[in-house]
């Protein structure tokens, strides 16, 4: 992962854009709404509304969230443009 980061693979214009919103800390660490924030970022990207952080040609995105104690629950959502 360190090499990918150094090579820009994870950047917005890289081949595997990651945390385009800045991740949980970049959006204010919304705790219980973290999954919603991630989903919103993906929809924003797929619609082409992300401005300077727009991933060119965004077609698909994946969001995951989990909650530790007391529930230990988690979820994954996959979004695809045009679906």
TrEMBL record:
Signal peptide: none annotated. Pfam families: Thiolase_C_1 (PF22691). Gene3D superfamilies: 3.40.47.10. GO terms for molecular function: acyltransferase activity. SUPFAM superfamilies: Thiolase-like. InterPro entries: Thiolase-like, Thiolase_C_2. Residues 2-80 form the Thiolase C-terminal domain. PANTHER family: ACETYL-COA C-ACETYLTRANSFERASE (PTHR42870), ACETYL-COA C-ACETYLTRANSFERASE (ACETOACETYL-COA THIOLASE) (ACAB-3) (PTHR42870:SF7). This is Thiolase C-terminal domain-containing protein. It comes from marine sediment metagenome. The lineage of its organism: unclassified sequences, metagenomes, ecological metagenomes.
